[in-house]
Amino acid sequence: MTRILLLFLLSSTVALAQHPMGKLSGRIVDDLGDPLPGANVIIEGTRLGASADDDGNYFVIGIPAGTYDVTASFVGFEHHTVEAIQISSGYTTEQSFELGMTNYFEIFGPCLDCWGYEPLISTDPFASRRISGEEIEHMPIGR
Q1: Of the candidates 65, 37, 40, 67, which has an alpha carbon nearest to the alpha carbon of residue 51?
Q2: What are φ and ψ of residue 96, in 5° steps?
Q3: Rounded Cα distance, 85 and 81, in Å
Q4: Counting beta carbons within 10 angstroms of the beta carbon of residue 117, is it exposed (0 to 12), middle (13 to 18) or buried (19 or more)?
Q5: Could you tell me what percentage of the chain is helix, strand and coil, using 3-state DSSP and rounding each to the nearest 5?
Q6: Whole-prediction pTM
Q7: pLDDT on residue 137
């Protein structure tokens, strides 16, 4: 039994050693240097990422050692990608981002159409109006 336990502990240690992990941290700010709370950082090619805190700081842990492209984004701001960031086992790599605002029309398009409708039947409890049977027949309501 002791041998099995020892074998299990050694095999799990070897398994952990085969997948060295590192950490990425930094700060995300706008072009004025103000923090962007809630901005996102994505490690391209993985499912890893993080959101910035109230001061714009972020960190991603458990990144397998290697070289990655990292993208920062925030609604209303341009995405920024830094290529070939080296993540080393047991170390923290620092990478900060400065995001510039995007053009409003690039987000929503050149034209916004707004439509408003008047209700077919008044819901005002004090309004009253006599409606004929012919008007009811021609109302555009489902039958």
Answers
A1: 40
A2: -105, 160
A3: 10
A4: exposed
A5: 20, 35, 45
A6: 0.60
A7: 81
- Report the alpha-carbon distance of residue 129 to residue 139 in Å, rounded: 15
How far apart, in whole angstroms, are the C-alpha atoms of residue 17 and residue 57? 29
Q: What is the DSSP letter of 35?
A: B
Express each pLDDT in 88-105 by its tens digit. 999 999 999 999 988 765
Structure tokens at 54: 């109230």
A 10 A CB-CB count for 37 gives 14
Q: Tokens 């555009």 map to which residue?
A: 140
Cα–Cα dist 51/57, whole Å: 8
What tokens were used for 9? 């502990």
Tokens at residue 75, please?
A: 């609604």
pLDDT in tens, 20-47: 899 999 999 999 999 999 999 999 999 9
Name the 3-class secondary structure at 77: strand
